[in-house]
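re: ur question from yesterday

yeah so i grabbed the chain u mentioned. its 206 aa long if i counted rite. heres the sequnce exactly as i have it in my notes:
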Amino acid sequence: MNKTLLLLAGGLALAALLPAPAAAQFGSRAEEQAFDYDPGAEAAEKVQRSSTEVTFEDAEMINHPIYGTIVLSKYRWRSWVTRALYLTLINIALLAIILAMPRNQEANIILGYTLCGVSMSISFWTFLCAVLIFMLKAAAWTYVLPVALGLGAAGYLILMRIKKSDVSLSELKESFQKMNKASTEDPRLTSVPGTPGDWPGDDFLR
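ran it thru and got these structure tokens back, copy pasting raw so excuse formatting
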């Protein structure tokens, strides 16, 4: 039984390996068994491959001695304008937060100093964006630079206001400390004008 099954399996495997005509072409004529497809002149005009054309009109090509040919966009200055815009919006938000903060506590004044430093740094970054746009020979630096300088000046004025509030708060603290010291001082130790010889009756050094 096992031998019969083995022979049957071997026969099927051998039949699968032998060449056989395709079922789709079985019984058809030889001229009908060609795979060449000719759509005709009319269909060939409709079925045309679309071509892709690449131009470098908006690009600047640099022949670098080490890195070879480098292709740079002529409009890359727009990315720096976008960066300057984002920095400007962040800077305006920071200045608004600083102006809205109360200055009657020392912690708020310290936080105001910190945010003013951040604002001045962002103004400097915006100024660098204007410099890079100028180096790329784009006219956009003419409105990025004034914005950077204006925000820097606004940050400096706010910093001076915080410093003035800091000085006023320090003076107020010193006055309160003096008042507290005067109220807790022993009245018997209060100094009086005059010299020891002015009160002979009260002078104990006799």
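noticed a couple things. The helical segments are 2-17, 41-46, 77-100, 106-135, 141-184. also Residues 25 and 32 are 8 Å apart (CA to CA).
anyway ttyl
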